[in-house]
From TrEMBL, chain A:
GO terms for molecular function: nucleic acid binding; protein methyltransferase activity; S-adenosylmethionine-dependent methyltransferase activity. Belongs to the eukaryotic/archaeal PrmC-related family. Coiled coil: none annotated. PANTHER family: METHYLTRANSFERASE N6AMT1. GO terms for cellular component: eRF1 methyltransferase complex; nucleus. GO terms for biological process: methylation. InterPro entries: DNA_methylase_N6_adenine_CS (IPR002052), Euk-Arch_PrmC-MTase (IPR052190), SAM-dependent_MTases_sf (IPR029063), Small_mtfrase_dom (IPR007848). SUPFAM superfamilies: S-adenosyl-L-methionine-dependent methyltransferases. It comes from Coptis chinensis. Keywords: Methyltransferase, Nucleus, S-adenosyl-L-methionine, Transferase. It is found in: Nucleus. This is Methyltransferase small domain-containing protein.
UniProtKB/TrEMBL annotation, chain B:
It comes from the Eukaryota. This is Multifunctional methyltransferase subunit TRM112-like protein. Interacts with TRM9. One of its GO terms (biological process) is rRNA (guanine-N7)-methylation. Belongs to the TRM112 family.
Length: 253, 122
């Protein structure tokens, strides 16, 4: 039976490139679980920001199909070694994405505004002291500052610009990134959200969150300002109510 | 790098007001077959800057695109095949993309454009 996702043995490597790990697998599992919805949604322009080894974009292109099926892929990363490895991984699997070396999407931002129907991101999110952020090499793959949010927040701003009216965003976060707050921020921009995959390992708890534009969400009033920035009761209830239903809401997956 | 990508890239250097389209310096280009999907092309057409596509295709040795497009052409398979060929099947492997305002070169190596800006350009 043909593989629906990238095969680890075909994923290229390089000492400076982040190997696929729990977070990459969680993101691909989230996409695979939503595959029928994704196929029905027919995203024309799909994009991965921070493509690493190419495992995720390769899996995505494998599971949805290519231009003949109406899908076109872009993948970006700030690291030149990374984009070359992604290119090799794609080639090894016989799928194509347009790979660009860039800081998030600075070269694409203007022209691709409002055009991306599907965006997937596994951002650098491990909290680090400020001086480690935006350094070169493989450490860029995991340096995210304070609660790990500098790059996530930047990516969310750009995602909001690039996503189309029917755009979907899947993002991997850690509990340390305060995913509830992230959902609150996105809610203010008019996005509904849902945790689609949750994994807990000994070291960290990962959440893959799906965001999409929702007119009803936009219609609600703004949150009352508060100094400790807790998410609204309705955001909390919406997210908490989903957790007991997740089959892997326990340690391990 | 396909010409679809070229049509979506612009120079984001600080202070540049018109960074599109990037000029193409083509050292090596190839053709790669891509499955034809007319709906995809009709979907993309409104977002394409046509003149930029025509001149980009010319710089890659392909002169078959009409200078202007009438809406009725989008129903012609002959036109769509030319559009398809230019947009998706022409690949710049080695060369550079040049900012029209500053002349700054963005290298394209093994088909991958490097759009990273230096610290003083951000």
């Amino acid at each position: 039976m043909p593989s629906r996702i990238a095969q680890i043995k075909l994923v290229s490597g390089h000492p400076e490139v982040y190997e696929p790990c729990d977070d990459s697998f969680a993101l691909v599992d989230a996409l695979l679980a939503d595959r029928i919805n994704l196929l029905e949604h027919r995203p024309t322009v799909c994009m991965e920001v921070g493509c690493g080894s190419g495992y995720v974009i390769t899996s995505l292109a494998t599971m949805l199909g290519q231009e003949g099926d109406g899908h076109h892929y872009f993948a970006t990363d700030i690291n030149l070694h990374v984009v070359r490895v992604t290119h090799e991984t794609l080639k090894a699997h016989g799928v194509h994405a347009e790979v660009i070396c860039d800081n998030v999407a600075s070269g694409l931002e203007r022209r691709l505004e409002g055009m991306v129907d599907l965006m997937v991101v596994n951002p650098p999110y491990v909290p680090t002291p400020e001086d480690e952020v935006n350094i070169d090499g493989i450490a860029a793959a995991w340096a995210g500052e304070e609660n790990g949010r500098t790059i996530i927040d930047k990516i969310l701003l750009i995602a909001d610009k690039l996503l189309s009216e029917r755009g979907w965003l899947y993002m991997v976060t850690l509990t340390a990134n305060n995913p509830f707050q992230i959902c609150g921020i996105m809610r203010d921009k008019g996005y509904a959200s849902r945790i689609v995959v949750q994994r807990s390992t000994e070291e960290e708890s990962l959440h893959v969150i799906k965001f999409w534009r929702d007119a009803d969400v936009q219609g609600e009033g703004k949150e009352p300002t508060s100094t400790n920035k807790t998410p609204s009761a309705s955001v909390m209830n919406s997210l908490l109510s989903q957790l007991p239903r997740l089959p892997f809401w326990s340690s391990g997956s | 790098m396909r010409l679809l990508t070229h049509n979506m890239l612009s120079s984001n250097i600080k202070g540049v007001t018109n960074g599109f389209p990037l000029l193409i310096e083509a050292e090596k280009f190839i053709e790669k077959t891509v499955d034809f999907n007319p709906d995809f092309l009709k979907n993309m057409y409104p977002k394409i800057e046509w003149k930029a596509l025509v001149s980009a295709a010319t710089s890659m040795g392909y002169n078959q695109l009409p200078e202007e497009v009438e809406p009725s052409m989008l129903e012609s398979e002959e036109f769509l095949k030319k559009f398809h060929h230019a947009l998706l099947e022409l690949h710049l492997e080695e060369g550079a993309l040049i900012c029209p305002e500053t002349g700054r070169r963005f290298a394209v190596i093994k088909g991958i454009p490097n759009m990273l800006l230096h610290e003083d350009e951000v």
